[in-house]
Amino acid sequence: MIRPLRLLFSWIVEVYQRLHRRERVHNVLLLGTRPLRTKIRASAGTTEAGSSLQSGRIVVKPQSTEIEPSNPHTMVVVSNRHTDTKEVRREASTYWEDKGWVKSGETFSGHYGTNGKRWSGAIAWNRHGFKCCLILDPPRELWKHPHARCFYYVGNRWYAVHFSTRPRTPDAAIIAVERILDEATGGR
Amino acid sequence: MEKNVAIVVAGAQGQEIKDLAIKPGTTARDILKTLGLERYVISTGEGKLFGPRDNVYEAVENGEKLYASAEAEVGR
Lengths: 188, 76
Known about the structure:
By secondary structure, chain A is of the alpha+beta class.
């Protein structure tokens, strides 16, 4: 008596699963944007484990389904991988540009800065190269520096800077003057 | 741990940028030698100038921009 009932239940379960699976496949095929290229893969073991008999009632559990794109190149990979590197600023702007100096004709003007202080400056440059380098009202401490005599007065509170090695770029001139100012004002 | 730095090399013909990963203990001389720059100096954006033996690795932040420019010297 029990065996025929079990067989009947098994048959009902099997029929239900078949119907359920067909319906699901049908939905996928209808809803998919590329139905012909869509594969459906059922996870292993779900057919047998997908149903159970509980207190005379058939419970059908949903089977997990994976939809894979047939063309792996269409997949978008989003990576949240955390790395320890930091992006390096790529602008190849020069020192004088980054320090806010501006170029007007053959003259660069801006500020020499060190130790939180700054002094107005100007550098004359032409296509042949460096012409002269000026600083307005250099600090008093500069006159105690060994290179004090390399700064000479040219008028109107401006001092010219003499170089033993001529700067080949405006950057070099600014950096060289800032180095002296740094030493004079107690940076080193 | 390495630090990444960008070094703007200013020359008479313009400037170019070099990306370097420096290891602990890297000095200014090491960097200039690697870049093949003679009589150049390296400085930070704040105007700090590195001597040849100064430890650049310790003084810079990861991702910092540095400047290499031809050496010029104030003097008579």
